[in-house]
Amino acid sequence: FMIITEYQFGRSGNNLIEFTHLLWLSRKYNATFVPPTWMLDILNPFNTSILESSYCIQLNGGVPKDASVVIEVTSEDSFFLPNLWKVNNWNPYRTSLPPLNTATIEEISLIFLKVYAALWSSPIKSVVAAGEWIIAHHLDNNFRYTSVHKRQMEGGCSKLLFECSKTSDFSAHEIPIGRPEWNSKSHPLCDMPYDFIYDTQVIHHRNNSKIFIAFDGRGESESYRQHGVIFSDVLQKSNRKSMVDTKYVDMFVAIHGDLFILNPRSTFSWEIYLVRLCLGLYSVPVVRNN
Description:
This protein is an alpha/beta fold. The chain is 38% helix and 10% strand. The chain has eleven helices and seven strands. The strands form two sheets. It has a four-stranded parallel β-sheet with strand order 5-4-6-7, sandwiched between helices. Strands 2-1-3 form a three-stranded parallel β-sheet. Strand 6 (259-261), helix 11 and strand 7 form a beta-alpha-beta unit. The longest helix has 19 residues, at 102-120. The two termini are 32 Å apart.
Protein backbone atom coordinates (compact mmCIF):
# COMPACT_ATOMS: atom_id res chain seq x y z
CA PHE A 1 0.00 0.00 0.00
CA MET A 2 1.09 3.59 -0.60
CA ILE A 3 -0.04 6.61 1.40
CA ILE A 4 0.54 10.35 1.61
CA THR A 5 1.65 11.60 5.02
CA GLU A 6 1.73 14.93 6.84
CA TYR A 7 -0.43 17.99 6.12
CA GLN A 8 -2.56 19.01 3.14
CA PHE A 9 -0.18 20.66 0.67
CA GLY A 10 -1.98 23.32 -1.35
CA ARG A 11 -5.57 23.40 -2.49
CA SER A 12 -7.60 21.29 -4.89
CA GLY A 13 -5.48 21.91 -8.00
CA ASN A 14 -2.28 20.93 -6.18
CA ASN A 15 -4.03 17.99 -4.54
CA LEU A 16 -5.09 16.56 -7.91
CA ILE A 17 -1.49 16.77 -9.13
CA GLU A 18 -0.35 14.95 -5.97
CA PHE A 19 -3.09 12.36 -6.47
CA THR A 20 -2.02 11.74 -10.07
CA HIS A 21 1.66 11.50 -9.19
CA LEU A 22 0.87 8.84 -6.59
CA LEU A 23 -1.24 6.85 -9.06
CA TRP A 24 1.83 6.66 -11.27
CA LEU A 25 4.18 5.91 -8.38
CA SER A 26 1.99 3.22 -6.84
CA ARG A 27 1.80 1.48 -10.21
CA LYS A 28 5.61 1.41 -10.30
CA TYR A 29 5.69 -0.36 -6.94
CA ASN A 30 2.72 -2.63 -7.64
CA ALA A 31 1.01 -0.99 -4.66
CA THR A 32 -2.53 0.15 -3.91
CA PHE A 33 -2.77 3.90 -3.37
CA VAL A 34 -4.85 4.95 -0.37
CA PRO A 35 -5.44 8.74 -0.53
CA PRO A 36 -5.73 10.67 2.75
CA THR A 37 -9.24 11.78 3.72
CA TRP A 38 -8.44 15.45 3.03
CA MET A 39 -7.71 14.55 -0.61
CA LEU A 40 -11.03 12.87 -1.31
CA ASP A 41 -12.87 16.20 -1.76
CA ILE A 42 -11.25 16.62 -5.18
CA LEU A 43 -13.10 13.50 -6.35
CA ASN A 44 -16.57 14.47 -5.09
CA PRO A 45 -17.59 16.30 -8.31
CA PHE A 46 -16.97 13.14 -10.38
CA ASN A 47 -18.10 9.59 -10.86
CA THR A 48 -14.86 7.70 -10.17
CA SER A 49 -15.82 4.31 -11.63
CA ILE A 50 -13.58 4.71 -14.72
CA LEU A 51 -10.67 5.80 -12.53
CA GLU A 52 -11.13 2.93 -10.10
CA SER A 53 -11.31 0.40 -12.93
CA SER A 54 -8.00 1.64 -14.35
CA TYR A 55 -5.81 2.08 -11.25
CA CYS A 56 -5.17 0.28 -7.96
CA ILE A 57 -6.76 2.79 -5.63
CA GLN A 58 -8.72 2.39 -2.41
CA LEU A 59 -11.04 5.30 -1.62
CA ASN A 60 -12.76 3.85 1.44
CA GLY A 61 -11.62 2.13 4.60
CA GLY A 62 -7.98 3.19 4.75
CA VAL A 63 -5.01 0.84 4.92
CA PRO A 64 -5.86 -2.63 6.30
CA LYS A 65 -4.44 -3.33 9.75
CA ASP A 66 -2.69 -6.45 8.49
CA ALA A 67 -0.92 -4.68 5.58
CA SER A 68 2.64 -6.02 5.40
CA VAL A 69 4.21 -3.06 3.56
CA VAL A 70 3.11 0.58 3.68
CA ILE A 71 5.15 3.02 1.59
CA GLU A 72 4.92 6.61 2.84
CA VAL A 73 5.36 9.74 0.72
CA THR A 74 5.10 13.20 2.26
CA SER A 75 2.48 15.55 0.84
CA GLU A 76 5.13 18.01 -0.34
CA ASP A 77 7.14 15.29 -2.12
CA SER A 78 3.97 13.99 -3.74
CA PHE A 79 3.65 17.42 -5.39
CA PHE A 80 7.35 18.04 -6.10
CA LEU A 81 7.85 14.48 -7.33
CA PRO A 82 11.52 14.95 -8.48
CA ASN A 83 12.38 15.23 -4.76
CA LEU A 84 12.11 11.45 -4.64
CA TRP A 85 15.16 11.07 -6.87
CA LYS A 86 17.42 13.05 -4.52
CA VAL A 87 20.19 11.02 -2.92
CA ASN A 88 19.25 11.54 0.72
CA ASN A 89 15.53 11.37 0.29
CA TRP A 90 12.88 8.66 0.47
CA ASN A 91 15.09 5.75 1.51
CA PRO A 92 14.81 2.77 1.23
CA TYR A 93 12.66 2.99 -1.94
CA ARG A 94 14.56 5.58 -3.99
CA THR A 95 16.89 3.08 -5.68
CA SER A 96 13.91 1.24 -7.17
CA LEU A 97 12.68 4.26 -9.13
CA PRO A 98 13.18 4.40 -12.89
CA PRO A 99 15.67 7.04 -14.05
CA LEU A 100 14.23 10.55 -14.21
CA ASN A 101 14.67 10.98 -17.95
CA THR A 102 12.57 12.01 -20.94
CA ALA A 103 10.87 8.62 -21.17
CA THR A 104 9.80 8.75 -17.51
CA ILE A 105 8.53 12.32 -17.82
CA GLU A 106 6.53 11.36 -20.92
CA GLU A 107 5.09 8.39 -19.05
CA ILE A 108 3.97 10.60 -16.16
CA SER A 109 2.54 13.14 -18.61
CA LEU A 110 0.41 10.43 -20.21
CA ILE A 111 -0.94 9.46 -16.78
CA PHE A 112 -2.06 13.06 -16.29
CA LEU A 113 -3.96 13.04 -19.56
CA LYS A 114 -5.62 9.74 -18.69
CA VAL A 115 -6.57 10.69 -15.13
CA TYR A 116 -7.95 14.13 -15.99
CA ALA A 117 -9.84 12.69 -18.96
CA ALA A 118 -11.27 9.90 -16.78
CA LEU A 119 -12.58 12.42 -14.25
CA TRP A 120 -13.96 14.97 -16.70
CA SER A 121 -15.63 12.29 -18.80
CA SER A 122 -17.86 11.65 -15.78
CA PRO A 123 -18.69 14.85 -13.85
CA ILE A 124 -21.69 14.55 -11.55
CA LYS A 125 -25.09 15.57 -12.91
CA SER A 126 -25.34 18.82 -10.94
CA VAL A 127 -22.09 20.15 -12.45
CA VAL A 128 -23.21 19.22 -15.97
CA ALA A 129 -26.70 20.67 -15.49
CA ALA A 130 -25.37 23.98 -14.14
CA GLY A 131 -22.78 24.30 -16.90
CA GLU A 132 -25.28 23.45 -19.61
CA TRP A 133 -27.71 26.02 -18.17
CA ILE A 134 -25.08 28.77 -18.41
CA ILE A 135 -24.17 27.81 -21.98
CA ALA A 136 -27.82 27.54 -23.06
CA HIS A 137 -29.10 30.73 -21.41
CA HIS A 138 -26.08 33.06 -21.53
CA LEU A 139 -23.67 31.82 -24.24
CA ASP A 140 -26.06 31.45 -27.17
CA ASN A 141 -26.45 27.71 -26.63
CA ASN A 142 -23.27 26.85 -28.54
CA PHE A 143 -19.55 26.49 -27.89
CA ARG A 144 -18.42 29.49 -29.96
CA TYR A 145 -17.36 31.53 -26.95
CA THR A 146 -14.03 32.51 -25.39
CA SER A 147 -13.33 31.23 -21.89
CA VAL A 148 -10.85 33.02 -19.63
CA HIS A 149 -9.28 32.22 -16.28
CA LYS A 150 -8.85 35.36 -14.17
CA ARG A 151 -6.89 34.64 -11.01
CA GLN A 152 -5.26 36.99 -8.50
CA MET A 153 -3.93 34.23 -6.18
CA GLU A 154 -4.30 36.18 -2.94
CA GLY A 155 -2.63 39.12 -4.66
CA GLY A 156 0.62 37.29 -5.47
CA CYS A 157 -0.10 36.12 -9.01
CA SER A 158 1.51 39.06 -10.83
CA LYS A 159 4.65 38.98 -8.68
CA LEU A 160 5.11 35.25 -9.25
CA LEU A 161 4.46 35.37 -12.99
CA PHE A 162 6.79 38.33 -13.57
CA GLU A 163 9.52 36.55 -11.59
CA CYS A 164 9.28 33.20 -13.38
CA SER A 165 8.60 34.36 -16.94
CA LYS A 166 9.52 37.05 -19.42
CA THR A 167 7.74 38.50 -22.42
CA SER A 168 9.90 36.50 -24.83
CA ASP A 169 8.44 33.28 -23.35
CA PHE A 170 5.16 34.12 -25.08
CA SER A 171 4.19 34.28 -28.73
CA ALA A 172 2.61 37.32 -30.39
CA HIS A 173 0.69 34.79 -32.51
CA GLU A 174 -1.15 33.72 -29.33
CA ILE A 175 -1.53 36.82 -27.12
CA PRO A 176 -0.94 40.58 -27.56
CA ILE A 177 2.65 41.26 -26.50
CA GLY A 178 2.78 45.00 -27.19
CA ARG A 179 0.12 46.10 -24.71
CA PRO A 180 1.11 48.47 -21.83
CA GLU A 181 0.12 45.91 -19.16
CA TRP A 182 3.42 44.11 -19.75
CA ASN A 183 5.21 47.13 -18.27
CA SER A 184 2.94 47.52 -15.25
CA LYS A 185 2.89 45.82 -11.85
CA SER A 186 -0.20 43.80 -12.82
CA HIS A 187 0.63 40.91 -15.12
CA PRO A 188 -1.96 40.76 -17.94
CA LEU A 189 -2.31 36.97 -17.60
CA CYS A 190 -3.31 37.42 -13.95
CA ASP A 191 -5.33 40.62 -14.15
CA MET A 192 -6.84 39.71 -17.56
CA PRO A 193 -8.10 43.24 -18.38
CA TYR A 194 -10.95 43.33 -20.87
CA ASP A 195 -8.90 45.06 -23.59
CA PHE A 196 -6.22 42.36 -23.31
CA ILE A 197 -8.86 39.65 -23.68
CA TYR A 198 -10.44 41.43 -26.64
CA ASP A 199 -7.09 41.88 -28.41
CA THR A 200 -6.40 38.16 -27.88
CA GLN A 201 -9.75 37.39 -29.48
CA VAL A 202 -8.85 39.60 -32.44
CA ILE A 203 -5.61 37.65 -32.98
CA HIS A 204 -7.67 34.46 -33.22
CA HIS A 205 -10.51 35.99 -35.26
CA ARG A 206 -13.01 35.55 -32.45
CA ASN A 207 -13.68 39.20 -31.56
CA ASN A 208 -17.43 38.72 -32.09
CA SER A 209 -17.72 35.75 -29.72
CA LYS A 210 -19.03 35.99 -26.17
CA ILE A 211 -16.73 35.77 -23.16
CA PHE A 212 -17.02 33.57 -20.08
CA ILE A 213 -14.67 34.24 -17.15
CA ALA A 214 -13.76 31.61 -14.56
CA PHE A 215 -13.12 33.95 -11.64
CA ASP A 216 -11.64 33.44 -8.17
CA GLY A 217 -13.67 36.36 -6.78
CA ARG A 218 -10.65 38.60 -6.17
CA GLY A 219 -10.66 41.99 -7.84
CA GLU A 220 -13.45 43.83 -9.60
CA SER A 221 -15.79 42.38 -12.20
CA GLU A 222 -18.04 45.32 -13.09
CA SER A 223 -15.87 46.55 -15.97
CA TYR A 224 -16.33 43.16 -17.66
CA ARG A 225 -20.07 43.05 -17.08
CA GLN A 226 -20.38 46.37 -18.93
CA HIS A 227 -19.19 44.47 -22.01
CA GLY A 228 -21.61 41.59 -21.46
CA VAL A 229 -19.03 39.16 -20.06
CA ILE A 230 -20.57 36.14 -18.33
CA PHE A 231 -19.60 34.81 -14.88
CA SER A 232 -20.93 31.71 -13.14
CA ASP A 233 -22.74 33.89 -10.59
CA VAL A 234 -25.59 33.97 -13.13
CA LEU A 235 -26.52 30.70 -11.39
CA GLN A 236 -27.79 32.80 -8.49
CA LYS A 237 -30.80 33.60 -10.67
CA SER A 238 -31.48 29.91 -11.26
CA ASN A 239 -32.36 27.08 -8.90
CA ARG A 240 -28.94 25.45 -9.25
CA LYS A 241 -26.75 27.68 -7.06
CA SER A 242 -27.08 25.66 -3.86
CA MET A 243 -26.62 22.33 -5.63
CA VAL A 244 -23.05 22.61 -6.88
CA ASP A 245 -19.57 24.02 -6.21
CA THR A 246 -19.28 26.78 -8.82
CA LYS A 247 -15.51 26.17 -9.12
CA TYR A 248 -16.27 23.00 -11.05
CA VAL A 249 -18.98 24.71 -13.07
CA ASP A 250 -16.37 27.33 -14.03
CA MET A 251 -14.12 24.50 -15.18
CA PHE A 252 -16.88 22.74 -17.09
CA VAL A 253 -17.84 25.88 -19.02
CA ALA A 254 -14.20 26.92 -19.58
CA ILE A 255 -13.36 23.46 -20.95
CA HIS A 256 -15.98 23.67 -23.70
CA GLY A 257 -15.36 27.11 -25.22
CA ASP A 258 -13.62 27.13 -28.61
CA LEU A 259 -10.81 29.36 -27.24
CA PHE A 260 -9.37 29.38 -23.71
CA ILE A 261 -7.07 32.12 -22.38
CA LEU A 262 -5.19 30.61 -19.45
CA ASN A 263 -2.88 31.52 -16.61
CA PRO A 264 0.31 29.47 -17.19
CA ARG A 265 1.18 29.30 -13.47
CA SER A 266 -2.20 28.11 -12.23
CA THR A 267 -3.10 24.48 -11.51
CA PHE A 268 -6.75 25.48 -12.16
CA SER A 269 -5.84 26.57 -15.71
CA TRP A 270 -3.62 23.49 -16.05
CA GLU A 271 -6.54 21.15 -15.36
CA ILE A 272 -8.73 22.90 -17.92
CA TYR A 273 -5.89 22.94 -20.46
CA LEU A 274 -5.22 19.20 -20.14
CA VAL A 275 -8.83 18.25 -20.73
CA ARG A 276 -9.05 20.63 -23.69
CA LEU A 277 -5.86 19.06 -25.06
CA CYS A 278 -7.60 15.67 -25.02
CA LEU A 279 -10.57 17.23 -26.82
CA GLY A 280 -8.40 18.96 -29.43
CA LEU A 281 -9.50 22.45 -28.33
CA TYR A 282 -7.29 25.53 -28.60
CA SER A 283 -5.77 27.22 -25.53
CA VAL A 284 -3.35 30.15 -25.21
CA PRO A 285 -0.71 30.91 -24.19
CA VAL A 286 1.20 27.63 -24.20
CA VAL A 287 4.65 28.09 -22.70
CA ARG A 288 7.24 25.52 -23.72
CA ASN A 289 8.62 23.52 -20.77
CA ASN A 290 6.31 25.42 -18.37
